[in-house]
Write a structure and sequence with these properties.
Blueprint lengths: L25 E2 L9 H27 L23 H14 L4 E4 L4 H16 L2 H15 L1 E8 L9 E6 L4 E6 L6 E9 L5 E6 L3 E6 L5 E7 L7 E5 L12 H22 L3 E4 L9 H7 L13 E4 L6 H19 L15 H4 L5 H33 L9 E4 L8 H12 L6 H8 L5 H15 L22
Parallel strand pairs: 1-5
Antiparallel strand pairs: 2-13, 3-4, 3-10, 5-6, 6-7, 7-8, 8-9, 11-12
Helix pairs in contact: 2-4, 5-7, 10-11, 11-12
Length: 483
């Protein structure tokens, strides 16, 4: 059993494999306490080890340690190129950058200026605490292995203005245990470390207790403390329902691409180092094939009436057909993984942003990003609840997590002209509320904040209507009103 810092990079297990996502770790107990924690942990850890083995393989694959590096050949084994086209890294890098290239912001879900002010302060606190960096690490793990984990804890430095810390933890050392009934309620969150003697120490969080356990066969309870937060601080962020990574579904194609490129290089090298065939030739005793190659020429002697002849086997792959096959594999990889095709986007045209997003694979990338947003919201709401509890206990800043929601800022400033025209047109209609116009335009990240700022500016800068002079009262000749 090895921890994160002890993970080797050998060829152990690096043979082509096909996965179908990580397993959800469940238990049938209603509540975890001191009487059953060791047994529950043992059963859960066995399932986690299977997930860990697959995560380790996918993480190595992402870093470029792929099965082609351990390729061997039976025919001419001296020419055995091992070429890695690391498309897995390309897929993960693109998906991470496209999804959280700009930090995830929080916006108000209610029409209340006081809530908007609190959300603005919450965003500042998240920025100072480095949330954007942790989110990037979290999403990177999600894209690699299909799931990620974030832990939120009270800050140890009591003098800090930010009362909480959050970390994206390694999924090879973190897992959650769920109840195997309707709702799949979280029973516990587990994080473990490995020391220099390969001893495992588990920290198990439940809503009420925090356990420290040494080992798992058998496990020894070192301490039991009250959970001061009152909530499990470890939150799992699955990428999708099956917990399948971004490049996991194209592993056979990326392996085939590596094999194709390796054979292609073999073909080139074998062409340069072509085999020399001697037909009806008689050589002197000190003439060998190596000496012929070094000299570059040879004097031939015919045997009898048969003509002496030297030939070179110089067959090579058809590079044009090979490139066509490679491009077909690449197109399939890009389409399945949901990233734009590089080959189709090299030529420029006069299409506007709205048209470009619908072609060359960008629509597929956007669709997957939108699907990911929906999976991100529920666990992020749990993290917001944790932050709310910690802030309420350790600072004078309080907010209601139900009034806050995450907002991705991806592609917010594309097609500005169309969005602006939509906003102006809707604001000009008397029967459309201005806030509805702000929301429908899609022009602003935080619609509520933009609407509040706009209304404040409008009220303070609205021109006052000139006062109309009062017309003098007409009198008759006698100076008395006609009435």
């Amino acid at each position: 059993m090895r921890g994160d810092n002890m993970s080797d990079e050998t060829n152990i297990g690096m043979v082509p494999r096909i996965f179908s996502g990580r397993r959800e770790i469940t238990s049938s107990v209603e509540k975890i306490d001191s009487s059953n924690i060791v047994k529950v942990l043992q059963n859960a850890f066995v399932k986690h080890l299977i997930n860990r083995d697959e995560i380790e393989y996918l993480y190595k694959y992402y870093k470029g340690i792929q099965p082609i590096l351990f390729r061997s050949k039976e025919v001419r084994p001296e020419i055995c190129n091992r070429v890695v086209e690391n498309r897995a890294n390309e897929i993960v890098t693109f998906r991470v950058g496209y999804t959280v290239g700009k930090p995830v912001q929080y916006i108000s879900s209610v029409s209340d200026e006081r809530v908007s002010e609190k959300v603005a302060r919450l965003n500042d606190m998240m920025r100072v605490s480095g949330k954007a960096t942790e989110d990037k690490m979290l999403v990177e793990w999600q894209m690699i292995c299909g799931t990620g984990y974030k832990i939120t804890l009270p800050k140890e430095d009591k003098k800090s203005k930010i009362p909480f810390d959050h970390f994206a933890t390694d999924p090879r050392q973190t897992f959650c245990i769920y109840r195997n009934d309707i709702g799949h309620k979280r029973l516990a969150g587990v994080y473990y470390t490995v020391d220099e003697n390969e001893n495992l120490t588990f920290t198990v969080y439940t809503d009420e207790l925090v356990f420290k356990i040494l080992g798992w066969q058998p496990g020894q309870i070192l301490s039991v403390q009250k959970n001061k937060i009152g909530m499990i601080p470890i939150v799992e962020y699955p990428l999708n329902m099956a917990r399948i990574g971004a490049f996991e579904t194209v592993l056979p194609l990326t392996d085939a691409l590596n094999n194709l490129e390796s054979n292609r290089m073999d073909s080139v090298e074998q062409f340069v180092q072509s085999l020399l065939i001697a037909i009806n030739c008689e050589f002197e005793d000190d003439v060998t094939a190596n000496r012929i190659r070094e000299a570059g020429m040879v004097a031939l002697k015919s045997i009898g009436e048969n003509k002496a002849e030297l030939k070179v086997i110089s067959e090579s792959l058809d590079q044009q057909q090979t490139q066509t096959l490679k491009q077909a594999i690449l197109d399939a990889i890009y389409e399945i993984a949901g990233i734009p095709s590089q080959s189709n986007g090299r030529t420029s045209d006069s299409s506007n942003n709205g048209a470009v997003i619908l072609k060359n694979g960008w629509q597929g990338a956007e669709t997957r990003a939108q699907d990911y947003e929906q999976m991100f919201r529920k666990p992020e709401q749990l993290t917001l609840e944790l932050v709310s509890i910690i802030c309420r206990a350790l600072s004078n800043f309080t907010f209601n997590a139900e009034e806050v929601e995450p907002k991705f800022t991806r592609r917010n400033y594309e097609d500005l002209l169309s969005k602006s025209q939509t906003l102006v047109t809707m604001l000009g209609q008397e029967k459309i509320h201005p806030q509805c116009a702000y929301e429908a335009s899609g022009l602003f990240v935080d619609t509520q904040e933009a609407y509040n700022m706009g209304m404040d500016w409008y009220r303070s800068n609205k021109p006052t209507e000139p006062v109309q002079p009062i017309a003098p009262v007409e009198e008759n000749e006698t100076g008395v009103d006609e009435e």
